[in-house]
Write a structure and sequence with these properties.
By secondary structure, the protein is an alpha+beta fold. It has helices at 21-29, 31-34, 42-50, 97-112, 127-135, 164-171, and strands spanning 4-7, 11-15, 57-63, 69-76, 82-90, 117-123, 139-150, 153-163. Bound molecules: coenzyme A (COA).
Length: 172
């Protein structure tokens, strides 16, 4: 039985299971995604899936109409008031699924789970993700200079955050 976190108009978010492992790995290593994330290995995800889900969780974005997987997120630091969203990846890009899935995840985070804040980091040249996060109400909180070393090149990260009060103000 798949554990469903939340459902919206077109998408549902559910906890990943072992049958999703190949999808998660393939999505991370697809070049158009890999350049924007730091992938984890299969053992990490296997552990994640088999864990009790109290601290971290792999989440599948599923199209309700077809049951197809259309994306994957990882949630971390769930044992603190400040949850981290990471590995935000949509496979069927440019159809509004990234926006809908993140809105659902924010609703789950603040309305169903009662976290105090969420944070997420993003490479400073990832224009689509930067636009998406800011338009959803994330606030730029920090700039980590030359934080990642990718293929011999240092890359900057922007840290975004959203507080529960900011989330609920936007719902009014
Ligand atoms: C970033 C990502 C999750 C967005 O998901 P998506 O489903 O493609 O995005 P959406 O269709 O919901 O569009 C979100 C916004 O980005 C814009 N956008 C989407 N694709 C775009 C493109 N190719 N060029 C310019 N803008 C684009 C949309 O217009 C939309 O903005 P709007 O609602 O103001 O018009 C997805 O593109 C992805 O998986 N990227 C690779 C991995 C990645 O970068 N992850 C983020 C790591 S921090």
């Amino acid at each position: 039985m798949n554990e469903i976190l939340i459902e919206g108009k077109n998408l549902r978010l559910r906890r990943a299971n072992m049958a999703d492992l190949n999808y998660i790995m393939t999505l991370q290593y697809t070049p158009e995604n890999l350049k924007f994330i730091v992938p984890f290995d299969m053992n990490y995800h296997r552990e994640n899936i088999n864990s009790d889900g109290a601290e971290k969780m792999d989440v599948i974005v599923e199209e309700i109409a077809t049951g197809n997987s259309v994306g994957y997120f990882m949630l971390r630091k769930m044992d603190s008031p400040s949850i981290e969203f990471t590995h935000v990846i949509i496979s069927r890009k440019g159809q509004g699924y990234g926006r809908e899935a993140l809105k659902l995840l924010l609703k789950w985070t603040f309305e169903l789970k009662d976290f105090h804040r969420v944070w997420i980091d993003c490479k400073d040249y990832n224009k689509i993700a930067l636009h998406l996060y800011e338009s959803l109400g994330f606030v730029r909180e920090g700039f980590l200079r030359e934080y990642l070393l990718t293929n011999g090149v240092y890359e900057n990260l922007i840290v975004f955050g959203m507080l529960d009060s900011e989330y609920f103000n936007r719902q009014k």
